[in-house]
Fold this protein.
Amino acid sequence: MRNIIVLGAGMVGSAMAIDLAKKHQVTLTDLSPKALERAREKDHRLHTRHLDVGDKPELERIVKQHDLVVCAVPGFLGFETLKTIIEAGVNVVDISFFPENALELDALAKEKKVTAIVDCGVAPGMDNLILGYYNEKLKLTDFECLVGGLPKVKKWPFCYKAPFSPVDVIEEYTRPARYVEHGQVVVREPLTDCEYVEFEQVGTLESFNSDGLRSILYTMPHIPNMKEKTLRYPGHVEYVRVLKESGFFSEAKIDVKGAMVSPLDFTSKILFSEWKLGETEEEFTVMRVTLKGKNPQGQVEEVIYDLYDAYNPETQTSSMARTTGYTATAAAQLVLEGLFAEKGVFPPELVGKRERCFEFVLNYLKERDVHYVKRVIVSKK
C-alpha cells in the first residue's frame, strides 16, 4: 500500500481517488469542503484535506509527504502546480490539460529525478498512448482522433452538457486548431471543416476542428498527417458559431449601464446551468482513433480503435470521469509498480511505445469495463 495524494475533488478527481483507494492510502484535496464531503460520502476510505494549490510553500510541503501525486486541478492552475510538484521531487500523473507546453519542464524533472506523466486522460491521453504504440510497429503516415462527451438526452438548443466549466469548453471553440498536413503544421479556425460521422451505438455525430494534438506536434514530427476533431450532436456547431460571431465569447469588457462586463464572463454564467452535467445525469464518451502506415512486410495497415462508454449508475460515475480518470490511475499504477520509471516529463505517446505499458493500461481499463475495440484493415497499396 502506497501513500497517494489527489489534487482536485471534481468529478474526475474524486473518481480517480476512489479507484486508487482500492489498493492504496489516498488523500483527496480541494478548496471546496462540499466537493470533499461528496467524495467522502461515496467512499469513506478516502482521507480529505482542504488545500489551496496556489499556496506554493504549503503545496510543496504537503506533496512531499506522499509517494505519488495525481493532479486534476483546473487548466489555468495546472502548469504552475505541476512545476511545484516536480520541484518538490515527487512523481506525478497529471490530467490538468493546461495550455502551456509541459515538455518545458522536462529538464527540471530530470534534474529532480521525477517521473511526470502528463495529459493522461482519454483525449489527450489514450489516443496518444495508441499512437505511441503503433509508431513502433508501423511507418505511420496518418493519425486521426475523433472524440466527444455527450448527454444521452438531447436538450434543445445546444444538445450538450459538460462535467467541467463552460469557460474550458468555450476555449475549445475559440483557440485556433493546429493540424499537420503533408509534414507541415497548419492552423485553422475552430468549429470549421464540419463533417458527419456515423457511430454504431450513437448514430450520426458532427465533427469539427479543435486544437487537440498538443504534445504530439513535438514528439511525432515525422508523421506527415495528423489531426484531432471534436464530436457533438448535429446542429450544435451552428448555434455556437452564432454566439461566437456575435461577440459573446469576447474577453474585452463592455459598458452595461455603468458596469464593465466581459461578454465571455456573462456567456459563461448563462451557459453554466444550460451546460452543467448533473451528478447522476446519463452521458457517454465516444472516440475513434485511426492510424495508417506501412507494416514491415510493406503492406498498408489501417488500425482503428473505437470507444463507447456510458455513465455507470451502480457507482454513479460519469463516463468522462471513467474514461479520463481510469487512464490516469492506470498510469499511476505503472509508476507505483515500477513498470515505468524513466525520469523526465512524458506525454502518453512516450509511455505507449513500451508494449508492456500499453497492454497494462488497456487491461486496467478493461477490468473497469472501459473497452477499446480494435479493427485492422490491410491492403497491398
In short: The mean pLDDT is 95. The first strand starts at residue 3 and ends at 7. The chain has two domains: 3-120+320-371, 126-235+269-310.
